[in-house]
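Protein modeling request. Please complete all fields; requests missing the sequence field cannot be processed.
Requester role: graduate student
Desired output: 3D structure, token encoding
Chains: 1
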Amino acid sequence: MSESIRRTPATKRPDLSNQHLLWLVVAVAIALVVVAVLGRLLPPHLMRPGSGLLQSLAATGSLLLLTPFVFSVKKRGGHANVPNRWFVAHVLASLVGVTLVSIHAFASFSGPPLLMVLSLLLLVVTGIYGRVVLARQMAATLGTKSAAFIPSDPDLKSKLRKVINDKIALLQQIDPDADEAVFSVTLGHWLRSPVQSWRYTRLATRESTLVGNRTTVPVLQAWWRIVHLLLAWGFLFGLLVHVFLATFFAGYVADGEEIYWWHLTKW
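Delivered output (267 residues):
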């Protein structure tokens, strides 16, 4: 009798379908409309942006909105064994965070915080577009060789060979055991070898430009990820500035009016 083979069960990979994602977005939109209507029925002191209620909601929402950045660090750091799980957490935490922060912003829908809410809206829109529309386009692009039918620089092959050789030589300093064909710089590499990682990233960008990766796909597909990341990091910067000013420079934020929110200093 042959020996039975034991198989390790595959790690369960949670998924969030496009239909479920769209329903969640609709639910968030309905919740915000309901809050905007019912908020007019609550006592005015509760609906001030810095009230105990709305400041607590904003703080909770802000923490939830940090989940996507944890997802990015985990993924780029090579520590996300089940990326789908972090992606689902990224989406769910982001939607709840957007809801709570928007409720806080509705109380005073003006000034610099309005730009943060706008960036959140654009993040949601670009995220949904990337998942529902561009994901299919990107899947269809894999394995195609459209660049092969475009007239190329006669010196392209030698230029590519030089870039790849430079990458291989540089990779020996970053990660000697890695394979250049499948290697990408992670957060750990940036921390251990920042200069070499920067140089390698420049070479990888140069290689991508020579091959024409962005020119062979639609503009939205080529630049969607960069726009989404810029919006995300821009929002994070604005959030940190907003929290810092409201906490340590309450007097500046109040601009001569009452400081009624929780803070540490009144500068």
